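TASK: fixed-backbone design
INPUT:
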């Protein structure tokens, strides 16, 4: 099982290397050389069993199955629901898959906890220690902090834009109480933190000296780990029934995981609706419009405020017939001109892959939150509401429709209170965070500042 770069100009690597490297050296994203064929699990398969089956297929010979089972067991033990990703019936033929039962109340926990186990396993075997840098606009930082807290092999440095994450999101990153988790709040925006991360990673000497790596939404292990819950939904709703998945979408990681699950035979068919907010790049790209770097609009579903979904590159690679040269050319043009047409073959193919997009405005998001609350008493998070509104609107399906619930409403108490007039507190399992002191330093949006801090933290 080898992984190739979507830009076609990097040596193939195995699963473990792809996970530790994150990004391919030619700037592309790792994708399997060929999708493995994976047998659909039975309806009674536990989440850990399915995760072991799926990840073993993606890992090939690079990891023994027993090790993978141990990682999955440890990763998912702290989840508050024994099925990890329970399906809840919300109406006739309509379901919601809750992905927020992890420690930091958003679906990012599902993959991040597995990645942390993988890193600990590999670094433990090699007797190595790494510094992991993470730039976050909110949810990824909390999931990473929680997953790596207490790791004996990793020092984690999380960069977030000062005063631009919600108080609850900040709490999850800064109040882990773990000595190996460090937080820097930088004066500027998320794009600035991401630029510093890229700059430091590109500095070969610094990267070697500090054993620096990054965990971010394009790591292949995240996609692989997220394809597991789609397989579980298929198994539980009937092995061969056509299911439509509605996926609240930002960086396109979750929707891509759905596509990957179908390519491996884990789904009866690929029918996926990417639900987007005013940042509707996915809708435009699927209609064949060019790649573009636009300004993001701030919405009520901030985790989806992304203009250029980075995982789209993997879909483009497939749609262009795995033409790495064409993908590389498109992204080079995007970098130099700020805009690039999609390769011709891809533009025609994208429309009929089974993927569509639905835009949902902030007004409709609030309406959906109100409606769910009035009809069933549920309080849903704004991202989930975008999905539910999109599901309500899509054409008739000939099987069940499953909407992903990507976060717990308690992560967005300000929006919930505005929409519903209800104050929502953290669930008991997360309440411990409020009793610990937050720990973070502030500083300028400067790569030198971050570099100095990392050097003094890891003593390199
Ligand atoms: C990250 C996130 C999303 C977007 O998921 P992608 O995989 O980036 O498309 C949606 N909802 C919530 C709550 C998130 O944290």
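OUTPUT:
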């Amino acid at each position: 099982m080898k992984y190739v770069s979507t830009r076609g100009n990097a040596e193939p690597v195995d699963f473990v290397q792809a996970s530790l490297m994150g990004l391919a050296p030619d700037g592309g994203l790792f994708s399997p050389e060929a999708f493995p064929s994976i047998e659909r699990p039975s309806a009674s398969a536990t989440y850990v069993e399915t995760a072991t089956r799926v990840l073993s297929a993606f890992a090939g010979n690079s990891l023994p199955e027993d090790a993978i089972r141990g990682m999955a067991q440890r990763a998912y033990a702290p989840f508050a629901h024994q099925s990890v990703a329970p399906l809840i019936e919300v109406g006739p033929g309509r379901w919601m898959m809750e992905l927020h039962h992890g420690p930091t109340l958003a679906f990012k926990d599902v993959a991040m906890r597995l990645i942390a186990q993988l890193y600990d396993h590999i670094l433990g075997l090699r007797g190595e220690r790494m510094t992991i840098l993470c730039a976050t606009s909110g949810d990824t930082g909390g999931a990473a902090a929680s997953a790596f807290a207490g790791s004996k092999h990793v020092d984690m440095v999380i960069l977030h834009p000062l005063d631009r994450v919600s108080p609850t999101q900040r709490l999850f990153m800064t109040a882990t109480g773990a000595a190996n988790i460090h937080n820097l709040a930088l004066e500027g925006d998320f794009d600035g933190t991401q630029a510093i991360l890229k700059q430091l990673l590109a500095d070969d000497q610094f990267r070697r000296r500090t054993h620096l790596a990054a965990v971010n939404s394009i790591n292949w292990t995240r996609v692989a780990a997220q394809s597991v819950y789609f397989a579980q939904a298929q198994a539980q709703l009937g092995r061969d029934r056509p299911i439509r998945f509605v996926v609240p979408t930002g960086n396109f990681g979750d929707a891509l995981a759905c596509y990957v699950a179908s390519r491996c035979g884990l789904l009866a068919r690929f029918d996926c609706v990417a639900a987007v907010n005013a940042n509707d790049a996915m809708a435009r790209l699927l209609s064949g419009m060019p790649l573009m770097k636009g300004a993001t609009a701030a919405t009520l579903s901030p985790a989806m405020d992304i203009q250029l979904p980075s995982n789209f590159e993997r879909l483009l690679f497939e749609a262009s017939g795995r033409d790495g040269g064409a993908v590389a050319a498109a992204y080079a043009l995007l970098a130099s001109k700020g805009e690039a047409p999609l390769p011709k073959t891809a533009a025609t193919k994208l429309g009929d892959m089974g993927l569509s997009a639905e835009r949902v405005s902030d007004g409709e998001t609030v309406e959906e939150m109100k409606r769910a609350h009035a009809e069933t008493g549920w309080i849903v998070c704004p991202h989930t509401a975008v999905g539910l509104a999109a599901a309500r609107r899509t054409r008739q399906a000939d099987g069940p429709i499953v909407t992903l619930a990507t976060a717990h409403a308690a992560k967005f108490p300000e929006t919930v209170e505005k929409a519903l007039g209800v104050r929502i507190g953290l669930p008991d399992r997360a309440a411990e965070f409020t009793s610990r002191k937050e720990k973070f330093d502030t500083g300028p949006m400067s790569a030198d500042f971050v570099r100095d801090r990392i050097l003094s933290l890891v003593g390199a």
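COMMENT: Residues 414 and 423 are 8 Å apart (CA to CA).
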